[in-house]
Amino acid sequence: MQNACRDIAATICAQRGWHVLCLSCFVPTLQPKTRGSLPTLRRAARDCRACPIWRNATQTVFGEGSADARFLMIGEQAGDQEDRVGKPFVGPAGRLLDEALASIAIERDDIYVTNVIKHFKFEQRGKRRLHKRANAAEIDICSQWLQGEFNAVKTRYLVCLGALASRIVFGRAFKLMAQRGRWIALEDGRWALATVHPSSVIRARIGGGYDEAYAGFVADLKKMKRLPD
Question: Which residue of 28, 33, 73, 136 is most buried, as measured by CB atoms within 10 A?
Answer without folding.
Answer: 73
